[in-house]
Specification:
54% helix; 5 helices; 2 strands
Length: 103
């Protein structure tokens, strides 16, 4: 079971229950990918609610890698999530919320 105090979530991705967490390393990876200068800028970027399919892929892949799963962004892009595009948005939103929301 995911530990919300560590910012972990569980999601069914690619037909398998998987754990995701944005570790400090995963957040650094996302800062670089999005050209964010710091965590505040990254949180602001996510807070706009304007995320492309590629953005969702990067966020979910970083979360999987943060939890120790050796996947590439392309691996994640090929994985199915229930609910299609809305499902990807739900998973990314839950991961972002678990990471940046104070508990």
């Amino acid at each position: 079971m995911a530990n919300k105090y560590r910012g972990e979530i569980d999601a069914d991705i690619g037909g398998k229950q998987r754990r995701l967490v944005l570790t400090l390393g995963a957040l650094a990876e996302l800062e670089a990918a999005f050209g964010a200068t710091d965590l505040s800028a990254l949180a602001e970027r996510f807070g706009t609610g304007r995320l492309s399919a590629r953005d969702l892929t990067r966020i979910i892949a970083a979360g999987l890698r943060g939890a120790g799963e050796p996947v590439t962004d392309d691996d994640v892009a090929a994985m199915a999530i229930d609910g299609g595009a809305a499902g990807y948005v739900r998973v990314a939103a839950a991961l972002i919320t678990a990471t940046f929301e104070a508990t």
